[in-house]
Design a protein that fits this description.
single chain, alpha/beta, Rossmann fold, GMP Synthetase, Chain A, domain 3, 3 domains, five-stranded mixed β-sheet, globular, ligase, Acyl-CoA synthetase (AMP-forming)/AMP-acid ligase II, AMP-dep_synth/lig_dom, ANL_N_sf, AMP-bd_C_sf
Length: 494
């Protein structure tokens, strides 16, 4: 992966590569600091194939450490700064790292979670700066495309986070394919609020640098200055999740200054409600709002071509170049165009599985019965049209029958988000303890929400109850925290 950086450095060494709240580095500076961190790892005895776990904020230093680890063939395993000791213990036990790096906030919990060496970033970086000033070379490591570049820990159906294995070959293929499809340019400035512990944030770094563009790491910025920072940095591309999109739309309505530099929003995590897309387009005339669909297990599955923004409003795009998407039934048989089934991805972007988790790997990653090529069975449901566009219908756990009708939480949430004044929404399927429910963040009373839903949905799909919340719980990556909502309602998991 470091070759992506080095090729741009060779062409434009003085261009700005990465910016955070404390300053910026050129491509030359980023390359030099990544070499210095590589030398630091060598000095600590970290070898090819070893893992390092890092619990750090996403800033310039973390980017340099990412590329520096890549240079030595060391496996980079970042974890979210908000992860608690309970999960840290399982992550460290699973990764079996050679060492762990934290900052002043995370060093204490990390030392509670492991007996391995835990280094404070402040001490590490002093040594890295010293190595940078000396410029002492170190024997390069022999890194191959099949070597593991990173472990990305995800939450999901298991109690402990599981790590997606990300080899250099799959990561570089996905980076090039996504960047080309979205049309990133060398003059772009990508304003990213997401941590590198999430693949969405990690790939934004790689994609920006593959294009020779600048990445602005804004995860630590206050929500109140968000639009100001987008203007000040002359951002042209802003990656979104629905909660951030809603926030930007709300802030933009109150703002008096325009943001003429913005040309593209990209979305992942969950579908953007049409009302949110409309508010973004109204606030930022001429901007494209690009819908995408994917999973960490293959990074990206489909992207709506930016030039077709506004067309096929229910579609989530076309497969990446060089990849394919199939819709299959419960027995793995391919279904005809238009029929709903499980979404299966195939291509060079499909990762090899989960780190030291053969059971979960066997469940999600299966061979094409004809070619033997790996396929990702996503557990998501959708359909294809006759031009190859994908339409997302929901996850396996999102789909259920009620009053004899099959439905999905996705369509109920979309209807709720269509109601003016609703800022967030999550539908919870029926359980033995309660009927279908919807939770919203809004100033509207619950009976108004239910009345408006009845105007938008068939009678069987209207929730029995509506719960209005002042603070809507979100996951570390800005998605709806369904488990917490379900626990609040009935003590069960969603």
């Amino acid at each position: 992966m470091h070759d992506l950086l080095d090729s741009v450095h060779a062409a434009t060494p003085t261009a700005t590569a990465v910016r955070d709240s404390r300053g910026a580095w050129t491509f030359l500076e980023l390359v030099e600091y990544s070499h210095a961190f590589s030398r630091w790892l060598h000095g600590k005895g970290v070898q090819h194939g070893d893992r390092i776990v890092l619990q750090l904020p996403t800033d310039r230093e973390l980017v340099a450490m990412f590329y520096g680890a890549s240079r030595r063939g060391v496996v980079f395993a970042p974890v979210n700064p908000a992860m608690k000791t309970f999960h840290l213990k399982s992550v460290i036990a699973n990764a079996e790292p050679e060492l762990v790096i934290g900052d002043s906030t995370s060093v204490g919990p990390l030392r509670e979670a492991t007996d391995l060496p835990v280094y404070d970033l402040a001490d590490v970086w002093r040594e890295v700066v010293h190595l940078h000033s000396r410029g002492t070379p170190v024997e390069p490591a022999a890194v191959t495309p099949n070597d593991v570049a990173a472990l990305i820990y995800t939450s999901g159906s298991t109690a402990a986070p599981k790590a997606v294995i990300c080899p250099h070959s799959q990561v570089t293929f996905a980076t090039e394919a996504i960047t080309t499809t979205l049309g990133y340019r060398a003059d772009d400035v990508v304003f990213c609020r997401f941590p590198m512990s999430w693949d969405y944030g990690l790939y934004k770094v790689l994609m920006a640098h593959f294009a020779g563009a600048e990445i602005v790491l804004a995860g630590g910025e206050s929500d109140l200055v968000l639009l100001n920072r987008i203007r000040e940095t002359n951002a042209t591309i802003v990656p979104l999740v629905p909660s951030l999109a809603s926030m930007i739309g709300t802030l933009a309505k109150r703002a008096t200054d325009s943001t003429p530099s913005l040309r593209m929003f990209t979305n992942t995590g969950a579908a953007l409600p049409q009302s949110t897309i409309d508010s973004l387009r109204q606030a930022f005339p001429g901007v494209s709002v690009v819908r995408q669909f994917g999973q960490t297990e293959c990074k990206r599955i489909t992207i709506m071509p930016p030039e077709q923004d506004g067309t096929r409003p229910d579609a989530v795009g076309l497969p990446l170049p060089g990849t394919s998407v199939l819709i299959v039934d419960a027995d793995g048989n391919e279904l005809p165009i238009g029929q709903v089934g499980e979404i299966v991805a195939e291509g060079p972007h499909v990762m090899p599985g989960y780190w030291r988790n053969p059971e979960q790997t066997a469940r999600a990653f299966r061979a094409n019965p004809r070619t033997g090529e790996p396929r990702l069975h996503t557990g998501d449901y959708g359909r294809l049209d006759d031009e190859g566009f994908l339409y997302f219908e929901g996850r396996r756990d999102d789909m259920f029958k009620r009053k004899g009708i099959r439905m999905s939480t996705v369509e109920i949430e979309a209807a709720a988000m269509d109601i003016p004044g609703v800022r967030a929404a999550a539908a919870l399927p029926p359980t033995p303890k309660r009927d279908l429910a919807v939770c919203v963040e809004s100033d509207l009373p619950s009976h108004t929400i239910l009345r408006e839903l009845a105007r938008r949905l068939e009678a069987q799909k209207v929730p029995a109850t509506c719960h209005v919340l002042e603070d809507f719980p979100l996951t570390l990556h800005g998605k709806n925290e369904r488990k917490q909502l379900a626990l609040m309602l009935d003590g069960s998991d969603a």
